[in-house]
Amino acid sequence: MKARDRLRIAIQKSGRLADPARELLARIGLSFRESRDRLFCYGESLPIDLLLVRDDDIPGLIAEGTCDLGIVGRNVLAEQAENRRAAGQAEAYRELRTLGFGSCRLSIAVPQDDAGQPASALAGKRIATSYPGLLEAWLRERAIDAEVVLLSGSVEIAPRLGKAEAICDLVSTGGTLAANQLVESEIVFESEAVLAGPPDGFGDERAGLAALFLRRLDGVLRVRD
Length: 225
Ligand code: ATP
Ligand code: ZN
Description:
One of its GO terms (cellular component) is cytoplasm. Its EC number is 2.4.2.17. The chain is of the alpha/beta class. It folds into two domains: 7-102 and 192-224, 3-Layer(aba) Sandwich (D-Maltodextrin-Binding Protein, domain 2), CATH 3.40.190; 104-190, 3-Layer(aba) Sandwich (D-Maltodextrin-Binding Protein, domain 2). It has seven helices and twelve strands. The protein has helices at residues 18-27, 58-63, 74-86, 132-141, 158-161, 175-179, 206-224, and strands at residues 7-12, 32-34, 40-43, 48-53, 69-73, 94-98, 104-111, 126-129, 147-150, 166-171, 182-191, 193-197. Strands 2-3-4-1-5-12-6 form a seven-stranded mixed beta sheet. A five-stranded mixed beta sheet has the order 9-8-10-7-11. The protein starts with 6 loop residues before the first strand and ends with a helix. Zinc ion binds next to loops.
């Protein structure tokens, strides 16, 4: 891979992790000259640049080496790692730090009438989700034979539409579930925002920059604790 002397960090362009990620980088002492299209932000205080992208793209950008580090939900990272594993691909990223924001859980939820049933009652049912990798791994571990229905969004309305008997989706307060007459029944995966990087370090000047970045990040995270 071509040697690079600037570090590139991918963060979510807009969404739940966008503002806290920007805030964290500011507290680390990074400042940026925003480009007009706001996809690429040039680092002014250090040779560390930003790429503003969809959160789902972050693991892939790290895997292909387009970005060096990324701030992303562990749920997204683990789902894509699971899919790589299933496809027989090598591990392509590593969780370097947990960042203390963006907490949520990937949970199975069922219609209120089915509340209180054991996990084994999911057998033979259809579960709608955008996280097939994590859900299938969870079902496999418990030897529950359920059908996973892949939906890219609006998973919570699947039971009402007759597309599934249960859902598996991200929950933080539970407000969305309650609004759709669903009850959380099983936690499949616990998540928060993490700093991700490649499984091996960097072979050029980015190694020193990454070390400096991590040192400063650790300082900020310690104060927060
Ligand atoms: P993008 O346009 O970047 O694809 P998105 O709609 O996939 O955005 P958001 O809804 O902004 O993403 O969520 C980003 C991340 O925030 C999630 O992957 C998850 O890690 C975290 N998160 C925290 N609480 C919640 C929640 N209640 N629902 C969904 N995500 C949550
Ligand atoms: Zn997304």
